[in-house]
Amino acid sequence: MLVRAIGPNQSRGPGWRMLAGAAAMLLAACQVIPKAPPPPPPPPPVARPAALPADSDRHRVALLVPLSGANAPVGRSIANAATMALLDTNATNLRITTYDTAEGAPAAAEHAIADGNRLILGPLLGEEALAVARIARSAHLAVISYSNDSAAAGHDVFIMGNVPGQAIARVVHEARDQGASRFAALIPVGTFGERASNAVLAAVRASGGTMVGMESYDRHGSTLTLAVQRLKAHCPCDAVLIADTGALAAQAASALHANGLTPRILGTELWSGEASVVNSPALRGAEFAALSDQRFPRFAQSYRTRFGAAPYRIATLGYDSVLLTLRIARDWLPGQPFPTARMFDRGGFLGLDGPFRFDSDGVVERALEVRELRGGGAVVISPAPTRFAE
Fold first, then answer.
1. pTM for this entry
2. Residues 226 and 119 placed together within one structural domain of the fold
3. Running DSSP on this structure, what letter comes out for residue 202?
């Protein structure tokens, strides 16, 4: 298009206006309009961790414990103890891979199965054990859990944690041997309390004693004191089981004495290692059952030398579970399922916490000692058996 210049003295009539409008439209059409930025590319798919390479000369075992989150220190302590067991035994036929359960034990179990593991050690908590058990059963894997929740036990699922009912049964039978016949109990509301109440009822019945009273409380306010006052109506009694921590047991014992009651006081394994029980005048002479600590100091010293810190008391489960696996692995053929039939050996097994074995339901049975609180300490008055009677 040819555009002719117009001088300053030339008239600008209607034609000029049309021409100017057309030129403006042409210039506008020639302008570059910026385009919107292209959408970002989709994120790449999350790759599932590649399966571990095959092992022809080692059994692959998964260890499921928390390595992050609130329970990470406990989980790391168990994992370190499992490593110690491999080092101490110079084991070369196991490959143990640790999986973090902090983001979900079921996901950790599925990852472990996808990696080709043939046995699961762990997890730690009861609700985790139930979920992992379902997944493992569908894959035909055995589980040796550190939980103490016997509800998770069953076919190919073994509970290795210390079951509270066994400690209660042990201390009740000891009191019965010392002449106690009339028993009572103070029980907290909740799952632990329900299991404790069932355990003490069964233990008293099995030992030939009489249960004269049982009162519950909800661990806050004045309900514990009120429960003690209600219990007084069922007494006199020879022994009272306080199924709670050392601190609350000390409160309950003080309330019993304030109400004129002086029975033998029995506790649970929750008292083990608690400073509040050995320092409480109200609990002097009280008895409770617990795992033997005979081997623990040497283990703790070795652990500290290797890892620079003290182990959690529960770390012995990690050590003993590896010893147990090595014992059973003598009959474990490569590529075959874990031979769970050997887990039911009535002679039991020996670990850092003493002798143990599994009943027909897969729940651990342990040899426990009974301690009496005396003058700022706990004295063993009935040692743990060194072997199981057939």
1. 0.81
2. no
3. H
